[in-house]
Design goal:
mainly alpha; 15 helices; about 70% helix
């Protein structure tokens, strides 16, 4: 009776081990690598953690004071445009970097100079540093309404850069030529429109700008002398009148 009990016990143990082995095999009959499955699960979880939704990353970059991270994003090459989702995400995040004042100044100037994207340039056009706004004002990828807005900037150097940008509308150029706060060098540039600069410009609009320069009290004598020989009679007349008036004032 004792031998019988021992034999039955051994058979039961063997059967239990067989069941455990079968439980660890998939339906195809191959044994499961429990450590490999656990590693795959951990890798999937890590990848899910590494990827942040766009809005989460945007807000983090918009408010972080991590200069190195901001610098890295500012200088990171953009994905190819054919990768639409990645490209859109990258440009959206650059907007957040552009709007963060902790982003190094040289990186904000870099973005203002190199980026063609309106959402980024609009952010930078509101930057507290004139150097950044000036770079936006000179960027020829600007929309004309943005460059036009910068012709009204509080900083003279920003206004001047915007007036020299070929994206500036003729209306803004005319207003700039009439503005007595615009410096003599910029007025001299405006006085060349339709002549040596942009010779194919609309004749009437260009002559209106040159005439406004001739009437501007900040225009230099050299500029007036050149305009006194302008092909447009009205421009030349205004310039000559200014020269005569100035000479009379000086002699008195």
């Amino acid at each position: 009776m004792s031998e019988m009990t021992t034999s039955q016990h051994e058979e039961a143990s063997a059967a239990s081990q067989d069941e455990q082995t079968r439980d660890q095999q998939p339906q195809g009959g191959q044994p499961v690598d429990s450590q490999g499955a656990q590693a795959d699960s951990q890798a999937s979880a890590s990848a899910a953690t590494a990827f942040e939704p766009l809005t989460v990353t945007y807000e983090r970059l918009r408010h972080t004071d991590d200069v190195e991270e901001l610098h890295g994003f500012a200088r990171r090459p953009l994905p190819d445009r054919s990768l639409q989702a990645a490209f859109s995400r990258a440009t959206a995040l650059l907007e957040a970097v552009a709007g963060n004042q902790h982003t190094p100044l040289e990186d904000r100037v870099f973005l203002a100079t190199e980026m063609p994207f309106p959402n980024i340039l609009v952010k930078l056009s509101e930057d507290s540093e004139p150097q950044v706004r000036r770079a936006v004002a000179a960027n020829q990828d600007d929309k004309n309404w943005l460059v036009g807005r910068l012709t009204k900037d509080s900083d003279p150097s920003v206004r001047d850069a915007a007036l020299r940008n070929p994206r500036t509308s003729w209306k803004m150029r005319l207003e700039g030529a009439q503005n007595p706060e615009v410096d003599a060098d910029t007025l001299d540039f405006l006085s060349t429109l339709g002549v040596s600069c942009e010779p194919g410009a609309p004749v009437v609009l260009a002559s209106m700008v040159r005439r406004a320069v001739a009437l501007n009290p900040r225009a230099s004598r050299e500029t007036l002398q050149r305009l006194s020989s302008d092909a447009s009679a009205s421009v030349a007349q205004c310039a000559k009148h200014r020269l005569e008036t100035d000479s009379t004032v000086e002699s008195n």
